[in-house]
Amino acid sequence: MITIKNLHKKFKKLHALNDVSASFSRGQVVSLIGPNGSGKTTLIKSILGIVKPDAGSILFAGKSIDKQVAYRDNIGYMPQIGRYPDNMKIGQVIEMVKNIRNHKDGTLDDELFFDFKMDEMQDKNMRSLSGGTRQKVSAVLAFLFNPDVLILDEPTAGLDPLASEILKDKIIKEKKKGKLILITSHVLSDLDELTTDVMYLQDGKLHLYQTVENIKQQTGETRLEKAI
Ligand code: ADP
């Protein structure tokens, strides 16, 4: 569904992405891991079209993203820190996003909205929200338009254990429906049950891109956090 070829991105002398190539297909949950500054966010933002690579190409459904605008409507993005107007209520933010975003087939996916009990919190002001509730709003928005691709940047950071479980269950369900899900996280133990593939970046280079099954087999470990 997404193919990236020989991506390079430099910020002055710093090589944030150094010849990164990979393909992602439906039904994959890819965990993008690596130390701080290894290029994870730059890679995600390149796929989202927010960062323009210096060289290389990104194809979405076989066509270069430079030649299509609407592909973004098919990607749900949960940023590390969602920024929303302070003076709006949760319900208003969700309505606003519904009104301004095009979506492919009109189906809304409001399962997380109810699972997170957002219907009881609609009147809360964004300014008064805890980090965790803000994360829930970001998650609801990422899944809202039933996209084929989900890009989740540190999705469980700041979520309480129950909310983390709800989100993980949702990710597993979406994977089974054939969605492609890319996740960055520091907490490998959080990813173990979800992940099909691990992509490890270091200094902008792709050091490893393998199925979890292979990694576990090769290392003889049964838990991902021990195997990496
Ligand atoms: P990660 O998400 O793995 O922590 P990033 O992709 O955010 O890594 O960053 C990779 C490198 O590129 C880091 O050294 C970071 O400081 C640098 N970088 C990222 N964005 C910018 C930018 N807009 N301007 C300058 N340097 C940047």
TrEMBL record:
Coiled coil: none
UniProt keyword list: ATP-binding, Nucleotide-binding, Transport
Signal peptide segment: none
InterPro entries according to UniProt: AAA+_ATPase (IPR003593), ABC_transporter-like_ATP-bd (IPR003439), ABC_Transporter_VariousFunc (IPR051782), P-loop_NTPase (IPR027417)
UniProt GO MF annotations: ATP binding; ATP hydrolysis activity
Residue spans crossing the bilayer: none
PANTHER family: ABC TRANSPORTER ATP-BINDING PROTEIN ALBC-RELATED
Stated name of the protein: ABC transporter ATP-binding protein
Organism: Paraflavisolibacter caeni
